[in-house]
Amino acid sequence: MTPSGARRVALMTGTAGPLAAGGLCRVLGLTGPANVLWAAATLFALVPAVWWVLAALRQRRLGVDLIAVLALVGSLLVREYLAGALIAVMLATGRSLEDYASRRARRDLRALLERTPREARRYEDGAVRDVPVEDVVRGDRLLVPAGSVVPVDGVVERDAAVLDESALTGEALPVEHDVGAAVRSGTLNAGDPFDLRATATAEESTYAGVVRLAREAQAESAPVVRLADRFAVLFLPLSLAVAGGAWLASGQLVRAVAVLVVATPCPLLLAAPAAIVAGISRTARHGVVVKGGAALETLGHARTLILDKTGTLTTGRPEVTDVATDAEADPAELLRLAAAVDQMSSHALAEAVVRAAHERGLSLPRPHEVREIAGRGAQGRVDGRCVAVGKAVSEAAWMSGVRARAALDGAMTVWVTVDGRTRGVVLLRDTVRPDAPRTLRRLRSSGVRRIVMLTGDRADVAESVATVLGIDQVQAECSPEDKVRAVRAEPDVSAMVGDGINDGPALAAADVGVAMGARGAAASSQAADIVITTDRLGRLADAMDVARRARRIAVQSAGAGMLLSLAAMAGAAIGLIPPAAGALLQEGIDAAVILNALRALREGRGTRVPLDISTDALLRRFGREHAFLRPSLANIRAVADSLSATPEALERLRDVHRFLVQTLLPHERAEETRLYPAVARALGGTEATTTMSRGHAEIERLVRRLGHHLGLAAHDGLRPDQLDDLKACLYGLHAVLTLHFAQEEEAYFSLSSGVYAL
Question: Long-range contacts of range 54-63, CB-CB < 8 Å, 24 or more positions apart?
């Protein structure tokens, strides 16, 4: 048990024990021992209460504890020992609740320190030796092995470097650096070993600066004022004024003590923390860990939301978005060959290629003679063919268009070469989370006024994501220092959401930091006040709903309790309520407001759309079908790109039509007849599905048009005068289906409580 935990247990035991023992003595007629025990409980609570008041005064603020101290002292002076013991137990209970609710996890940034490089491999007399990183000086030549962290800032001296820079920039895709390029410490070598010429010492390097910045941001974070103390600013002087007035008017100190007893702010000491604790319990059921009551309170009135891009608004890992080929190759076959080689490859993007092949149901043969070629990729033999994955080894006219498309989309390219000829390319991109648009809409409806995106990624990529999501402000190419400055510049209460090591300083600097902890860096979880343990951004909106409701209930409970206390104070001031009776009356008020506060344990409506079990199951089913169908959409575009009046093109066109008629249209019709009615019931009317139904009609129209063209070509093949309209039909189908899938996933599938694969 921690020292603070031991103190809380001692305080509860030292007050509740004598109160109970004194009650037993009173029942047995032992009045003297009962008073002694109750007085002991009062004194036991008085000592720490005085300390809390002095600590608050040192911070130049007054809190609710001062009223409790005055009530304890007054009960001893007028020998109302039972009242004093009751107040002592209330004070101990409230402090224990509040300490539990507001205790923060230490922001020691342990993960940052553990990741800091401690050794470097330096060339000395032609050999490589391990040396402490502190011994590295400018000009040293270092070897950076595969999978190791770059120890200091420097320039690539030999062999190209492929670096995972997500620790600094948050960008999920690895970055290639040619010889002579500058690289920063803290990045991870995701490729082959390379030589580095140091341009800075460890202390001067980038990663050390990130650690220093996180420590500074943590140290400079302002403490959050307790909700109870904000109420006490008004309640404290009022209570003292009523008590003093009663004493002066009657000349009886006992009336002043009675006023202070019933004014003891137990609704603030108990009800507000109880509601916050209930809110913390509620968020835990949503997979959100809140490290303290202050964090939940702050989240409950945050008005500005600041989000990192990679891993927060996007999935945080590269996904295969398309497979482009020359006119002769089949995209699925090309992906199968590439994934077969990448099974044995350590290339940074190999896992994504293999994962995409498995998602498409492709059977991967075992490759032979696999080897890594420095700076080029992987090569091996698959089904008797020589397959190379990585850089392009030949050039063709079709490749320039693909390169332009990849640049516009911010995609990485993995070229696939078969038997010495580059036949296709796998395009990979970090995609927007399916639940991100709905989550941001929910957050706006819950009270967030402004949404800002901070990212270390390029401006064009950041702007494309912001446009899709309706972000109010974008700051791209941000360093960790830039993020901290942006967070501190926000005038309203702000919540910062991130997942990478580079987000740690900004999370520590924000009013409340939220870490995507399912796949995010441990350092961001250490620096954050709130950690989302599931890989669902929608949990952030759930946590915001709970926080706002818990805070609202806390305010209601405290406000109602204070009004009841004011009425009791009036009765005590005129002599109707003696101190002991006042203490019991205050217990009744406490019980009422605490029961009200515990309403925060129940699920509120919030901004989530409630779903029945059958609708949720339908959403998951059709989400899985989307994951199965989506890869085939790319083939529609590929057929359009290579369309010509040849028998081979006609056969590929027939394959597309069979897929559309036999697989896609049945899926769309099942959505129309089964899914859309269920969604309409959940969303409150058919207007929510009308636009999607119109999309289904357009898809059917284009498929019929494609079938008409195939009917015309049944005997004599495709005519040249058909090609333009056919291309328009195919490109139209690809565009409509891509948009339609995205709309359904955003508007409907994101309603599901489950995670579906895309």
Answer: 56/229, 61/225, 61/229, 62/229, 62/232, 62/233, 62/236, 63/226, 63/228, 63/229, 63/232, 63/236
The strand ranges marked E within 159-226 are 161-164, 175-177, 182-183, 188-189, 194-198
d(CA 558, CA 297): 14
Q: Give the end-to-end CA distance of the chain in Å, rounded to a whole number.
A: 45
Nearest of 61, 80, 64 to residue 72 by alpha carbon? 80
Distance CA 377, CA 347 (A): 7
Helical ranges in 421-578 per DSSP H: 436-445, 459-469, 480-488, 504-509, 522-527, 538-573
H and E: helices and strands count for the chain: 28, 22
Q: Model-level pTM greater than 0.90?
A: no
Secondary structure of 546-589 in the HEC alphabet?
HHHHHHHHHHHHHHHHHHHHHHHHHHHHCCCCCHHHHHHHHHHH
Rounded Cα gap, residues 547 and 529, in angstroms: 13
Collect all residues with Cβ–Cβ distance below 8 Å to 467 and sequence separation of at least 6.
Answer: none
For 281-308, give one letter per residue: b (16+ CB within 10 A) or e: ebbeebbbbbbbbbbbbbbbbbebbbbb
Are the beta carbons of 507 and 107 closer than 8 angstroms?
no
- Known catalytic residue at 724: no
Count Cα neighbours of 607 within 13 Å in the Cβ-side half-sphere.
22
473-475 and 182-183 strand pairing:
unpaired
What six digits make up the tokens of 331? 């995209």
pLDDT digits (tens, 9 = 90+) for 212-226: 655 554 444 434 345
Helix runs in 223-369, H state only: 227-250, 253-263, 266, 272-285, 293-300, 331-342, 350-359
Is 152 in contact with 111 (CB distance < 8 Å)? no
The catalytic position among 65, 140, 192, 308 is 308
Distance CA 411, CA 377 (A): 18
> Using one digit for the tens of pLDDT, what is the confidence trace for 650-665?
888 898 999 999 999 9
Nearest to 305 by CA among 464, 487, 458, 459: 487
Q: What is the pLDDT of residues 111-165, one digit of tens each?
A: 455 667 788 899 888 788 888 888 888 889 899 888 888 888 899 887 788 887 7
| Contact indicator for 113, 120 with CB cutoff of 8 Å | no
Measure the CA–CA gap between 550 and 346, rounded to whole angstroms: 48
Q: Is 717 left (phi over 0), alpha (psi -120 to 50) or beta?
A: left
DSSP letter for 675, please. I
State how far the Cα of 129 lies from the Cα of 121, in Å rounded to an integer. Answer: 5
Q: Where are the beta strands (DSSP E) in 291-411?
A: 304-308, 319-325, 368-373, 377-382, 385-390
Listed as own residue / partner, the contacts of 217-225 with beta carbons closer than 8 Å and 24 or more positions apart are 217/484, 217/505, 217/506, 217/508, 217/509, 218/107, 218/109, 218/508, 218/527, 220/509, 221/508, 221/509, 223/294, 224/294, 224/295, 224/297, 224/298, 224/511, 225/61
The partner residues of 177 in beta bridges, in order of sequence, read 161
DSSP state of 149: B
CB-count exposure of residue 223 (10 Å: 0-12, 13-18, 19+) = exposed
What is the helix (H) or strand (E) element at residue 63, kind and residue range? none
Residue 453, φ and ψ in degrees, nearest 5: -115, 125
Q: Which residue in this structure is represented by tokens 């960790």?
A: 480
Distances in Å between the Cα of 500 and the Cα atoms of 138, 165, 433, 480, 521 are 29, 10, 16, 10, 5
Q: In sequence order, which residues have a C-beta less than 8 Å from that of residue 14 and are 6 or more positions away?
A: 41, 44, 45, 92
Task: Count how many Cα atoms sit within 13 Å of the Cα of residue 367 in the half-sphere of its side chain.
Answer: 23
Place of tokens 């779903």: 611
Q: 105-109, 285-289, 515-519, 584-588: lowest mean pLDDT where? A: 105-109
Q: Residue 311: what pLDDT?
A: 80
